[in-house]
Design brief:
The protein is an all-alpha fold. It has helices at residues 2-27, 36-43, 51-58. It is built from 3 helices and no strands. The radius of gyration is 27 Å and the shape is elongated.
Length: 73
């Protein structure tokens, strides 16, 4: 029976700890802007392209859309 009391007190302590962490995160502004990070992934960042695509963008060709990456110069 004493183990049950210890477990209840431990779970209440843990719940209070999580509640305090949640209140702290709300107070510090962690949940202010929840829309922008999910939309940022859709916009794409030109600096985060893989190196192969970056090298294709830097080559001077008359029509970059029709550049075949398997061709060698």
């Amino acid at each position: 029976m004493s183990v049950l009391v210890i477990l209840i007190l431990a779970s209440l302590g843990l719940a209070l700890l999580f509640l305090a962490a949640f209140i702290w995160s709300v107070q510090t502004g962690q949940f202010e802007d929840t829309t922008t990070p999910s939309l940022r992934i859709l916009g794409g960042d030109p600096d985060s392209s893989p190196p192969a695509i970056k090298s294709l963008r830097t080559k001077s060709s008359p029509c970059p859309e029709k550049t075949n990456p398997t061709q060698t110069d």
